[in-house]
Design brief:
This protein has 800 residues and is mostly beta strands. The chain folds into 3 domains: 2-17 and 652-799, Immunoglobulin-like (Sandwich); 32-53 and 499-647, Immunoglobulins (Immunoglobulin-like, Sandwich); 67-495, Neuraminidase (6 Propeller), CATH 2.120.10. The protein is elongated, with a radius of gyration of 29 Å.
């Protein structure tokens, strides 16, 4: 019976499979943008394959350098070297923060994106009052260790980070949240500082670390610190206090770091929903590792779900290759591969690199030893696996001491960084480098005897550069003496190097169902976002411009551009509809309408993020695929499959494809996939359920299999795609496996069940490395009456 079933499957299904017809988007066009569309289609009529395995990052020794000082009016090395002169030498800073905001010095910066701007907060600020040796400015305002907040539109690190502080009179606006809803004051004394920030739907949220107790001048007890969520109103310059996030001594998020993960970034389905999700990394004054929690952004402010329960989920470890989550903070486990005796991780900063598909973390290992300083680690997901941390800045090794950080030793045995001293100088006591200003108790933190410390890193995502084999990271860092924040650069070798030129990175959400929604498409270029000339999005069941929602976007700057929608015939010669972004117009064809309201574009570094508000026509019902491509002056990325979307239609009679989960993955596996089929006559009426995993509807060199529900048999077609054989088969449940050149299906972890009208097939699938690229899951079902659902694209996988 098995050969008969296979041959029947071949006649009913495989015989109709063929590569998608080439698009008709050809011909000469009067508009330059659409000329480029035609060129892309002509170059790449088939789905291009790409390898998306996350790369490795290796620190380049000697690449960590100070670029410039962020705060104050003058660079301290030049000023302190001539401090006895009247006036001392001044190498101006880009922002002139003392003159403009009475910000002479501060520490622990926090940086995050908000509405196209960079928002930056600082901690424990000092101004002109009491610091006459270090400034010519006159201002009697007393900061009292309070903290300012600033904004910047600087796009490139090399241009100099220009900060514009929110002001209150003749000084920077102080971050002074009111009491929490229960009346608890939010103290903002020494070491009580903003430690995190994120922008959600145009609202700025700050995580405040508070609770520090001053035992004596310069002596602070942080053992009962806790974090409070607040909001900031830019227009009014006011703050609102909300819930407590975490509290010592048992909490792990007293010093949180926030990052907003766009839909799809955390996988499909996401660990929590709805998306986007706020990812929270936890450190603190007593931390020996970093911890992780997540919460839907819609529940971030309240902290509770619709039932009044905690909406936060804490990473509780891995099980069978998947993260596990707990609603209890007590179950949170350490995230990084560190020795438990690590001296401490008081500060952490995180960004997500879209071009590399990597989460990048920089943290401080506390102390002044040869192993202390700034460390970097990276991972494909927030829960890991995180790489072995690499020391990227040490004050001695990387020549901070004696250059832009003060170096002092009272006795010869304390001279643990002799390279910081001028050649031949070893006598004690002695020092080198800029001395002062210092913060706090000036009898304790004496400028001429207080050694500098590197601490408080803050990665600046918009400055990140990916160029060929090199990653350039830019971050702010505090130096203690002088009491300053400096901008640093550290470089890394990328192995293997990401593809150069243009790339289509992602479509988010990468799966789902509905008559429309807001979709975010990301593209990148190793030459920077300005190198991208045309970005294409084709939404259709196959790679065919006819009767498709086929869009071209022509960038017109970092936050503007033109949207062109090709007509139903798929002929870029016209007619077509166009509109500009930002704008309130709309464009339509027979398949979709794109509204300017709700659509936008933003560009940072190498990446362009295009958000489109799309409504699908009723006649476009079915399972559609997101095909993306990008072009610059050097060429095209080719078409890349980045997701699927179901446009619901009227239910029919007979067999149908219901869907799969997860619908978007990026792994060789083994991964447990669940496929659902249905039949209006009951699941027993389904005679054959087919699954084809390939870049197009083509059984050759695909992971192509059939399920025969009557016998619970799984049959895997060979590499040639010939259902006549040879093939491999097994019965579920079972412990065997079947393989071809593209995939292996394991009986362990696989099952088949039927209930009512629904047939559910779970398969443990491992892909071969030779199958690398963007693959589509096509499903179909046939019943005993010969009715066939036809092939339906329901998911995608990026095989590394």
């Amino acid at each position: 019976m098995v050969p008969t079933v296979i041959n029947s499957l071949y006649r009913a299904g495989y015989a109709t499979m063929h590569p998608a017809p080439p698009s008709r988007i050809t011909g000469s066009l009067c508009h330059a943008a659409l000329l480029l569309i035609a060129a892309i289609v002509a170059i790449s009529p088939a789905v291009a394959q790409s390898v998306n395995q996350p790369p490795a990052l290796t620190f380049i020794p000697g690449s960590s350098v100070k670029l410039y000082q962020v705060n104050g009016d003058c660079e301290w090395p030049e000023w302190d070297a001539t401090i006895i002169n009247t006036p001392p030498a001044c190498k101006p800073t880009a922002s002139q923060t003392e003159t403009k905001a009475d910000v002479l010095g501060d520490d622990v910066p926090v940086a995050f994106e908000h509405n196209g701007e960079l928002i930056v907060t600082f901690g424990d600020t000092i101004g002109a009052a009491g610091y006459s040796p270090w400034t010519n400015a006159q201002n009697s305002f007393q900061w009292n260790s309070h903290d300012p907040i600033a904004r910047s539109t600087t796009a490139n690190a090399q241009d100099g980070l220009a900060l514009n502080f929110f002001l209150s009179g003749n000084h920077g606006l102080e971050v002074l949240p009111p009491p929490q809803p229960d009346g608890t004051p939010v103290a903002m004394g020494a070491d009580d500082v903003p430690s995190a920030g994120v922008s959600i739907n145009g609202q700025i949220y700050l995580g405040i670390t508070t609770g520090t107790v001053t035992v004596a001048m310069g002596d602070h007890d942080r053992s009962n610190d806790y974090s409070v969520l607040t909001t900031f109103d830019e227009t009014a310059g006011t703050f609102t206090s909300g819930r407590t996030i975490s509290a010592l001594p048992n909490g792990h998020f007293a010093r949180p770091t926030f990052y907003l993960a766009a839909p799809g970034v955390l996988g499909t389905p996401p660990p929590v929903s709805p998306e986007p999700v706020v990812v929270i990394f936890g450190a603190g004054p007593t931390a020996r590792n970093v911890y992780l929690s997540i919460i839907p952004s819609t529940e971030f402010w309240s902290g509770t779900d619709q039932n009044g329960n905690s909406a936060t989920r804490y990473f509780a470890g891995m099980s069978q290759g998947q993260p596990t989550w707990s609603s209890s903070e007590a179950n949170a486990v350490p995230l990084l591969p560190l020795d438990p005796s690590n001296p401490g991780i008081p500060y952490v900063s995180v960004l997500y690199s879209q071009p590399l598909a990597l989460w990048v973390m920089m943290f401080e290992s506390a102390g002044t030893t040869p192993s202390s300083g700034m460390y970097l680690t990276y991972a494909p997901q927030p829960w890991g696996p995180w790489s072995t941390p690499q020391l990227v800045f040490n004050a001695c090794r990387d020549k901070g001491f004696g250059n832009f950080m003060f170096y002092y030793y009272a006795s010869a045995d304390q001279n643990d960084c002799p390279g910081a001293m001028p050649a031949g100088v070893t006598s004690a006591p002695n020092s080198a480098g800029p001395a002062g200003p210092t913060a706090g108790d000036q009898t304790k933190n004496v400028p001429t005897t207080t050694r500098g410390i590197a601490y408080g890193p803050a990665l600046i995502e918009r400055f990140t550069i990916v160029s060929g084999h090199t990653l350039k990271l830019f971050y702010m860092m505090s130096t203690w003496n002088p009491y300053a924040v400096v901008l640093m650069e550290s470089d890394f070798t990328i192995t293997p190097a990401p593809s150069t030129g243009p790339a289509a990175t992602s479509a988010l959400p990468a799966s789902g169902s509905g008559t429309g929604g807001t979709f975010t498409f990301t593209f990148s270029d190793s030459g920077g976002f300005a190198s991208l000339t045309v970005l294409d999005i084709l939404i259709n069941s196959v790679l065919d411009g006819r009767k498709a929602c086929y869009v071209a976007f022509v960038p017109g700057g970092a936050s503007a551009g033109s949207v062109y929608l090709v007509d139903n015939a798929g002929d870029a010669g016209g007619p077509y509809a166009g509109m500009t972004l930002p704008g309130s117009q709309s464009v339509s064809n027979g398949q979709c309408t794109i509204s300017g309201a709700g659509s936008s574009v933003s560009s940072i570094g190498n990446a362009v993020t295009l958000t489109l508000a799309i409504t699908f026509a009723a006649g476009f019902a079915g399972n559609q695929v997101f095909y993306l491509s990008a072009q610059d002056a050097t060429g095209s990325s080719g078409w890349q499959v980045q997701g699927t979307w179901n446009v619901p239609g009227s239910p029919g009679n007979g067999p149908a494809v219901s869907g799969m989960s997860p619908a978007r993955t990026s792994s060789l596996g083994p991964t447990a996939y669940t496929f659902s089929f249905a039949d209006t006559k009951g699941w027993q009426d389904i005679s054959v359920a087919n699954i084809l995993i390939n870049g197009a509807i083509d059984g050759r060199h695909g992971c192509y299999l059939a399920l025969v529900p009557a016998s619970s048999s799984v049959l895997l077609v060979d590499d040639a795609g010939d259902a006549g054989g040879p093939y491999s088969g097994m019965v579920l449940p079972g412990s065997g496996s079947v393989s071809n050149g593209q995939c292996t299906i394991s009986g362990t972890g696989s099952s088949v069940t039927g209930t009512g009208n629904t047939l559910t097939l779970s398969l443990a699938i491992t892909f071969s490395q030779s199958f690398a690229g963007e693959q589509i899951f096509y499903l179909s079902a046939r019943n005993n009456s010969g009715q066939n659902s036809g092939w339906q694209a329901v998911g995608t996988v990026s095989v590394p």
